[in-house]
Amino acid sequence: MKLYYDPITVNCRKVLAGFDLMGVQFESVKMNYFGGDHKKPEYLAINPNAAIPALVDGDFILWESNAILQYVADKNGATSVYPKDLKTRADISRWHLWESSAWFPSAYTYLVENVVKPILGQQPDKAILDAQAPNFHKLAGILEQRLSKQPWLSGQSVTLADIVVMAPIHLHPWQKVPLENYPRVRRWIGQMEALPCWKRTDPVPIIGLKQP
C-alpha cells in the first residue's frame, strides 16, 4: 500500500496515527501541502478532489481519510480498534460521519484563524471565531456528554472513532479551542496524547510551532 500525505495536516495525521495504532506497514509518499503538491496533475489523477491523503493499494485508489482507516483496518484484521460487532461498528461509523460533517469544519475554523494565519503572517479574525463559537460549544457538549458515560468514544478502549475525532483538534493549544468547560473532553485529550501512536505522529516539530 502506498500512502500520499503531508504529516502536518489534520487528515494525514489522522491516518498516520491510525496506521501506527494498527501496526500497519505502508510505502510513504510525502507531499508538500503548502507547496501545492496536491494540485499537481500527477496527483489529481489519483485524487481529483486535490486533497490529501490518498491510498493506492495495487489497482485500487482510495481517498477520504476515514474511509482509508476503515479499509486498512479490515484489510489488516485490526478488530481491536475497528470491531466487527455490528452496533460498535455502526457507532464508530457514526462518529466518523459526525467528524467529517460537523466537528472538522468547526475545529478547522480555529486552526485556520489561530495557527495557519499566524504562520502566514496574518492576524486571526475575531469576528469569524466569535461566529463559530456557539456551534463549537454545541459540538463539544455532545462529546462531553458521551465521555461522561465511558472513557473512550465507542467503549472501554480506544478505537478508530477516537483517532478520527481527536485529529481536528490535534493542535488544540495553538488552535485555542474553548474547552475550559469540558473536563471530560480534556481528560480524553490527555488519554489520546499519551498514546504512543499519537506521540510518534506529532507534527509540531515539523511545523516549528513554539509552545503557547
Q: Order of strands across the biggest sheet?
A: 2-1-3-4
C-alpha end-to-end distance:
37 Å
Strand content: 5-15%
Share in helix? 40-55%
| N-to-C order of helices and strands | EHEHEEHHHHHHHH
- What gyration radius follows from the Cα positions, in whole Å? 17 Å
Mean of residue pLDDT values: 97
Number of domains: 2
Name of the level-1 CATH class of the largest domain: Mainly Alpha
Largest sheet: 4 strands, mixed
CATH-scheme architecture of the largest domain? Up-down Bundle
Number of DSSP strand runs: 4
Low-confidence region ranges:
none
Structural class: alpha+beta
CATH topology of the largest domain, by name, is: Glutathione S-transferase Yfyf (Class Pi), Chain A, domain 2
Number of contiguous helices: 10
So what's the overall shape?
globular
Commentary on this structure:
There is one protein chain. The protein is an alpha+beta fold and 212 residues long. Helix content is 55%, strand content 8%. It has a 4-stranded mixed β-sheet, with helices on one face. It is globular, with a radius of gyration of 17 Å.
Compose a concise summary of this entry.
The protein is of the alpha+beta class and 212 residues long.
Question: What keyword list fits this structure?
Answer:
Glutaredoxin; 2 domains; Glutathione S-transferase Yfyf (Class Pi), Chain A, domain 2; alpha+beta; 8% strand; four-stranded mixed sheet; 212 residues; 10 helices; globular
Any chance you could write out the topology, listing elements then pairs?
Layout: E1 2-5, H1 10-22, E2 27-30, H2 41-44, E3 54-57, E4 60-63, H3 65-75, H4 86-119, H5 126-147, H6 160-166, H7 172-175, H8 183-194, H9 196-200, H10 204-207
Parallel strand pairs: 1-2
Antiparallel strand pairs: 1-3, 3-4
